[in-house]
Amino acid sequence: MPDPRSGLVVVDKPGGMTSHDVVARVRRLAGTRKVGHAGTLDPMATGVLVLGIDRATRLLGHLTLADKRYDATIRLGASTTTDDTEGEVVETRPTEGVTEDAVRAALTSYVGEIDQVPSAVSAVKVGGKRAYARVRAGEDVDLPARRVTIYSLEVTAVDLPSVEVSVHCSTGTFVRAIARDLGVALGVGGHLTALRRTAVGPFGLDEARTLEALADDFAVTPIAEAARAAFPARDLDETQATDVRFGRRLDLALEATTAVFAPDGEFLALYEPRDSVARAVAVFV
After folding, report:
1. pLDDT in tens, 67-84
2. Exactly one of 3, 12, 42, 206 is catalytic; which is it?
3. Cis omega before residue 161 (within 30°)?
4. Catalytic residue flag (residue 275)
5. Do the beta carbons of residue 231 and residue 258 sit within 8 Å?
6. Which residues contact 104 (CB under 8 A, 6 or more apart)?
């Protein structure tokens, strides 16, 4: 029988907490150590943090590939060691010559596939060690650019030197880096002063709950419901369901990683198209 505790919890992370802090709190609320999260949020950031409980932790590696949405505030005229307010200011420049049109034009150039250099103080691993750990140890870290996709970047408000934006991007995108690069493009420096993640794939703020609300009523989105929300779904017949339970390939035409279900609605596995058939990515039964 499916474990009723297995599923996802969408947390509205408060500022000042690390993602690990949130996981530790949810472990206590759930009564299990088997809790993980899909995509780190910096301590200063707030918003959607998707957590998996028990068997659903195995979904998280696939959810981290989902697109993300953010609301952010950028301050021009100052650069910091971390590209946000948590770092030390390393340079300031006047912004009187910066115009709203120049800001909008510069941000337009970041839409689409771009090569982005991650922030040096980040969780990106360099030689098996987190970049932020190397920086704190006094090392100079030079991270290579990575290909990311900015699906949309909307300027929602301009009150120079502050600029507010909404970003829809691929996994691996650093909004802090957008702030930094905007400052460089305008010749005045820039950093992030606020960041709120509004969605991870299909999971948005409308279903996110605060830790206080979860402490009062710890509700978990069942793994079957979560899988249907996060992936394309395919309902199987009994013969196919039996094959899935043994991890066998299926003669199905799939276009992407797909959640497959038994006739009674039980979530069985994730399958992907490979070599003209469907093969198991992860079996959950």
Report:
1. 999 999 999 999 998 899
2. 42
3. yes
4. no
5. yes
6. 155, 158
